[in-house]
Structures are given as C-alpha cells and as structure tokens.
Amino acid sequence: MATFKIGKRTLGEGHPCFIIAEAGINHNGDLKIAKKMVDVAAKAGADAIKFQTFKAEEVVNTQEEMIAYRHQGKLVKESFMGLLRSVELAYKEWRELAAYAKAKDILFFSTPQNMPDLRMLMKIGVPAIKVGSDDLTCLPQLAEYAKTRLPMIVSTGMAYLSEVDEAVRTILPHNPKLAVLHCVSLYPAEFEELNLRRIETLKSAYPNVVVGFSDHSRGITAPLVAVALGAKVLEKHFTLDRGMKGPDHGFALESDELRQLVREVRNAEASLGSSVVEPVGERELKERKESQRSLVAVKDITKGEKITKENVAPRRPGTGLPPKFLLYLLGKKATRDIKAHEFIRLESIQ
After folding, report:
1. ω into 279 cis (within 30 of 0)
2. Less crowded by CB within 10 Å, the N or C end of the chain?
3. CATH classification of 292-348 is 3.90.1210.10, yes or no?
4. How far apart (Å, rounded) are the C-alpha atoms in residues 152 and 171?
5. What integer pLDDT is reported at residue 63 of this predicted model?
C-alpha cells in the first residue's frame, strides 16, 4: 500500500484525498491575481495550490505556432509563444508567491518545464514536483526529477499504458514517492470522454504508487466519481472569473465552486465509510429495534392451539422473536394461553 508525505499531509490509502487547486496560468501574468488565487484556494480548504513555471522559448519551437481556444463563446487564435510570454513570472515573483502561500498555510508548488525551472523552484522550497502530461514521455528528465527525491505527481493524459509503465519504471528506482494521475488532455473534456474507470486500471497496475485524477471537465461531478473510484489525489483548475481571457479560464471552477468541490469531496469520502455489512453504530441499532418486526399474537391463542399464519404475524418493534422463526413455529402448539399483542416466545411453543 503506497503512502508518502507532501509537507505534513500524507497521501495514499487510508488518508483523505489530497486536493490540488490548479491555478496554472490563470493568474494571467499578474502577481496580484496569483496572490488572490492563493487566498481563494486556502479559504476553500484545498491542500495545495499549483502553478506552471516555464520560459516560453523553452516550450514552443517557433513564433509561428498558434493556439486556439474559446473565450466567452468565441474562437480565439493567438501566438502560443506570445501567450506564454504574457503569463511568465520572474524568479522574485515566484519567491514572493511561495512566501505568501506559506503565510496562508497552504502548500505551494508548480509544474516545471525542465531541470533549470525545477532548480529555481527547489530554491524557493517547493515540497513536491508536478509533471504535466506533456512531459510523461520525457524519460531522461523524469529520471533527473526523481533523483531529487522530492515527491512526484505525474499526469498521464494522451498516454498509452505502456508509456505510463515506462515513466513509472524510470522514476521508482530513484524515488518511491510517486503519484500517477489519470488525465484526459482535452480542454474541456466532456463526460463521455473521461473514462474514469482508468483509475481502477492504474490502481491495479501500480499497487506501490498513489493514484489520482487530474480533471479538465466542467463542474464537480467527475471529481466526486473519481474519489468514489479510489482517487487519492485530485487536481482541478480554478479561476477568479471564467470571463477572463485565456485558454484555461472557461472550464475552470470559480471561487464558490472550488469551496463546494472541497466540501463535497470530504462528504463523499465520509460517505464511503466501511465495507463491513452491519448496523452503523448506536443510532442504527436503535432504529433497527424500532423498525424491524417481531412475531406477535394477533389474536388470543389458547393453550394447545396450533400456531398458524392467522394467529401469529410480524409486527413492530423488532425487540422480540425475529419473523424468520415463523416457518419453524407453524403447526406447533402453544404451551400456555397467549394473549393478543403479546410477543411470541420459544418457551411458550412446543
């Protein structure tokens, strides 16, 4: 059974789902917005807030590459390089943001694009490494990340299971603190595209790895299903306002929805409870006594009279002889007079 810690939080079976509020690039390059997002995530009760750290020139190959997304129902096309440049943060801003998150008592980390980005993040004290789906097949980089011994959370969007295998086999020899997240890299992903049963596949394939879900669908339905299927890490995009311009705002949760997500995940976890089939504590035991039925004389029965379905029947409460004994008693005789409404006792029947 895989477990490991990020900060003071333990991830894995037997522990609450680790909820990551994914800010990503939804700060739009503005440190003030990024800090407000920290406030929102902390107030919502998320365990961590996560951003994305990169230099545009190290992500996109040429200036000509374009990105298309919908903003307020309209298709927007713009330079991918230009978009990424507009949302870059400088080292001093990352340092200030990390310190701000620490003051708000929420874990802070970010997805690096390469080892220099990770070294910078380690310098400001991130407690974990998040690897995006786009880097799942960058095995040399995964090996470098793993050697830092920081806990790793790796998304698996767009991947074949064989590629997930390669990534896991690359990381585990260097670092046992690993979570893999089922992910569908569509923005947004529709419900019929989510294939949440892959969570069960990952749990079966990797018993020594924590399994979770990185969600790009709308709303909170899919995360709750994922938790029911055993996801122990949950990553969900959020924004201050879905009306803001950018590729990831439109499908993200807003502040009140993020609070609702955290609350409902905790309710879902509480609802899962135990797999043991038995009454639930004293309250249900009391209800059992009041609601179940006992065998009762529905009319006066004289000594020597046979027990029939006409003179004995099940009635509330369930504090007497259970109805299952009726078939055993049919045809037997009363050893004493039994008054109507009296509970039937075995010693009164022969």
Report:
1. no
2. N
3. yes
4. 9
5. 87
Distance CA 118, CA 115 (A): 5
Report the Cα 275 to chain-centroid distance in Å.
Answer: 19
Compute the residue count for the chain: 350
Residue entry with tokens 């790895």: 209
Q: How confident is the model at residue 349 (pLDDT cuts 50, 70, 90)?
A: very high
Question: According to DSSP H, which parts of 104-189 are helical?
Answer: 115-123, 139-147, 161-171
Cβ proximity of 220 and 264 under 8 Å: yes
The domain spans of the chain are 8-272, 292-348
Region 8-272: CATH code: 3.20.20.70
What CA–CA distance (Å, rounded) separates 75 from 341? 75
Average pLDDT value over all residues in the chain: 98
Residue 344, pLDDT score: 98
pLDDT digits (tens, 9 = 90+) for 137-182: 999 999 999 999 999 999 999 999 999 999 999 999 999 999 999 9
Instruction: Tell me, rounded to whole angstroms, the distance of Cα 181 from its chain centroid.
Output: 10
Exposure b/e, 115-153, CB count within 10 A at least 16 = b = eebbebbeebebbbbbbbbebbebeebbeebbeeebbbb
Q: Quote the CA–CA distance of 127 and 147 in Å, as a whole number.
A: 14
High-pLDDT (> 90) share of the chain, %: 98
8-272 and 292-348: identical CATH topology: no
Average pLDDT value for residue range 46-67: 96
Residue 1 scores a pLDDT above 90: no
Burial class from Cβ neighbours inside 10 Å (0-12, 13-18, 19+) for residue 260 reads middle
Q: Give the integer Cα–Cα distance in Å for 57 and 59.
A: 6
